[in-house]
Automatic annotation (TrEMBL):
The chain crosses the membrane at residues 52-69. This is Uncharacterized protein. The keyword Transmembrane applies. PANTHER family: DEHYDROGENASE/REDUCTASE SDR FAMILY MEMBER 7B (PTHR44196), DEHYDROGENASE_REDUCTASE SDR FAMILY MEMBER 7B (PTHR44196:SF1). Putative oxidoreductase. InterPro entries: NAD(P)-bd_dom_sf, Sc_DH/Rdtase_CS, SDR_fam. It comes from Clydaea vesicula. Keywords: Membrane, NADP, Oxidoreductase, Transmembrane, Transmembrane helix.
């Protein structure tokens, strides 16, 4: 009883600031992506200042991406018949590029290892273009590349645009049991082959002040599990062609590096070590026709580096600044929690 009577007196004698209600704490909305990112970054970097800096960077990158993705009002339309050589043209991006270039009247030479598919594609391209030839060959074979150049000089009188589409995928986790032959095959096709092609076609492209278009991948910039070998082969080719551009752009050669994410083609199904954590089908990814439209526009405009879709430019920058963030989502995407 005495305790109850004394409580009001004790409360009345407390300092005024003690009686003030505390400010409510910030409570993240459950399930909110922003709250999840907030918590993750605070946990990773340990300060609100870093979180604010991350948000600022993201805002700047989003604005940049919106600007870069706007339609350009001026296009480089070629008055003459463009002479185009496409290596790796029998399927996927290479096949669609062949069809689109044929529709706009380009003079084409197509190369691939699969002659039966090349014959079918050549026949289809001839429906819209008067000059289409094919050459059966392998990008890793120097003699084949020289034969391709000879055919281009004979049939076309030179080369305006060389497009390198040939590539193979490795989609399994790197292990002690990973075969040496697999590593060599991936690098021979994705790295050594394009370098050989660039060397053999360099003189012809310098004469025409032409375009060298390289279909690479964002996997060469943004690391992901199960893509260690493939990503390394693309990272090497990215650095090679970015360096080569600096060496020769003053002489009129443009090198356009195309960096797509997953495209709706059968490319994933052709992985040499098909052990993918994602389904090997064409139900997700970038539409092939749209992707090739962007590639051709980029070549016409003589752009230097193109991300498809464009927001991967922001992701690549984010990876350089906050690699833990992109690594976290890569682990989540491929099931490596």
């Amino acid at each position: 009883m005495n305790v109850c009577l004394n409580l009001p007196i004790a409360a009345a004698t407390l300092p005024p600031e003690t009686l003030q209600a505390p400010e409510p704490a910030e409570v993240p909305v459950p399930g909110s992506a922003l709250s999840a990112l907030n918590s993750f970054v605070q946990m990773t970097y340990g300060s609100r200042e870093n979180l604010h800096m991350l948000y600022l960077i993201i805002c700047v990158l989003v604005i940049t991406c919106i600007y870069l993705s706007k339609e350009r009002s001026h296009w480089l339309h070629r008055e003459n018949k463009e002479r185009v050589v496409i290596i790796g043209s029998s399927s996927g991006i290479g096949k669609e590029l062949s069809l689109q270039y044929a529709k706009r009247g380009a003079k084409l030479i197509l190369m691939s290892r699969r002659e039966n598919l090349l014959k079918e594609l050549t026949k289809k391209c001839l429906e819209t273009s008067s000059s289409v030839n094919y050459f059966k060959g392998d990008i890793t074979n120097e003699a084949d590349l020289k034969g391709l150049l000879d055919l281009a000089n004979e049939k076309l009188g030179g080369v305006d645009t060389l497009i390198l589409c040939a590539g193979i995928l490795s989609s399994s986790q790197f292990k002690e049991e990973t075969e040496t032959s697999l590593i060599q095959t991936i690098f021979n096709t994705n790295t050594i082959g394009p370098i050989l092609a660039a060397r053999i076609f360099l003189k012809a492209l310098l004469v025409s002040k032409g375009n060298l278009v390289v279909i690479s991948s964002v996997a060469g910039l943004i690391p992901a599990p199960t893509r260690s070998i493939y990503g390394a082969s693309k990272a090497a080719i990215n650095l090679f062609f970015n360096s080569l551009r600096i060496e020769y752009e003053s002489r009129g050669l443009n090198i356009c590096l195309i960096l797509p994410a997953t495209v709706k083609t059968e490319f994933r199904n052709s992985a040499l070590d098909a052990e993918d954590n994602l389904e090997n089908n064409k139900t997700f990814g970038i539409d092939t026709v749209k992707c090739c439209n962007i590639i051709i526009r980029s070549s016409d405009l003589r752009l230097k580096q193109v991300f498809i879709p464009v927001h991967y430019f922001a992701i690549s920058l984010l990876e350089k600044i906050f690699p833990s963030v992109t690594n976290y989502f890569a682990k989540k995407k491929y099931g490596f929690h």
